[in-house]
Amino acid sequence: MLAKTNLHELASGGETVSTLGGQTLNPYDLTRTPGGSSGGTGAGIAANFGLLGIGTDGINSIRSPASANNLVGLRPTMGLVSRTGLVPCGLTQDTIGPITRTVADAAVLLDIIAGHDPADPATSDAAAHIPRSYTEGLDPDGLNGARIGVLRAFFGDGAEHRAVNAVMQRALSTIRAQGAELVEIDEAIRPDALLADTLVHLYEMKGDLDAYLADAPSGVSVRSMEGIIASASVHPSVAATLKSAMTLAGNETEYRERLQRQQALRDRILGLMAAHRLDALAFPHQRRLVVPVGQAQAERNGVLASATGFPAIVIPAGFSEPDANAPHGVPVGLELFGRPFSEAVLLRLAYAAEHALGARRAPLSAPPLT
């Protein structure tokens, strides 16, 4: 069964609100957002309305809903999965991947969607990196002997970060107990600086979105970003983004500088992982709990994968302390980040961590149907 669901309008925000679908709520705390931009998929899979979900991820948009909804979300290496049909925010960073309740489900779904697509030239090298099945490496003892770098710059140190840090401390202790060696990484790679200096989607959005709309079916009434803005129908949370994209389109000097910063970041991360002999980096996907409805999403760490094009997977790490609005607590997601085309390694580590942590719980707001 296929179903449509809500997402943040034009995948341009982290709260999952749109003119068509309104505000999606987090099934674990109905006063909070479900992350985003693919938060409708996240909420639906968490509430057992569907078995497998697909999200799009330009910066955080697969892993943010996974973190916020106690799910697994995999952003694949750029070029592993076709983007044909994706409504683009900027194709240097846009990709597609699974949102599921378990790592095994994510592996099965990746088996189906990974591969070469002639319509997406970025996938031309995909087949050479795909195993017979991503499920073959799933092993509950898969953490034993792994070296995982704990990227401390991606943790917060304020009062607002205590709930997430407490969950992460327990999760990392469990991972260590499963035989993984945790390596403290104090490299000064700041997520907020990466957000400010490396992302290119606003420079690409107009050209990529215009090209998509030009080839859209005949029933589509707008054919350009200018047409969307002129319609005055876009959600207010996205209007400023579109205006910024219009302003930045054609600024080739800054655009090229940002692409160069992305390449420098790739080189730096690969060197860091080689120097410490790491299988993956680990950090919370979001440094504070997912925000209440009406607030802008804050302090997410998905930029490292989106700026490099490297793969990352989020799994349930645990919950904050329960309260009146969140009887289980609010979900917290652990992100594992890897080298290009290391999805099999990340899935192995994530599967073992998932089994050791046992952090998946169904939301009480969506009880089983009888």
Q: What's the short version?
A:
Helix content is 34%, strand content 14%.
How does this model look, in words?
This protein has 370 residues and is an alpha+beta fold. It has one domain (9-187, 265-357): Amidase signature (AS) enzymes, CATH 3.90.1300. Helices cover 34% and strands 14% of the residues. The protein has eleven helices and ten strands. The protein has an eight-stranded mixed β-sheet, sandwiched between helices. Strands 1-2 form a two-stranded antiparallel ribbon. Helix 3 (103-113) runs antiparallel to helix 11 and helix 6 (201-214) crosses helix 8. The two termini are 20 Å apart.
By DSSP, the count of extended strands is: 10
Order of helices and strands: EEHEHEEHEHEHHHHHEHEEH
CATH topology: Amidase signature (AS) enzymes
> CATH superfamily, please?
Amidase signature (AS) domain
| Class per helix and strand makeup | alpha+beta
CATH class: Alpha Beta
- Give me the CATH architecture, please: Alpha-Beta Complex
Write down the overall geometry. globular
Distance between the termini: 20 Å
Q: Could you list the spans in which at least 5 consecutive residues all have pLDDT below 50?
A: none
Strand order of the largest sheet: 3-5-4-9-10-8-6-7
Mean pLDDT rating: 96
Please state the CA-atom Rg, rounded to the nearest Å. 19 Å
Number of domains: 1
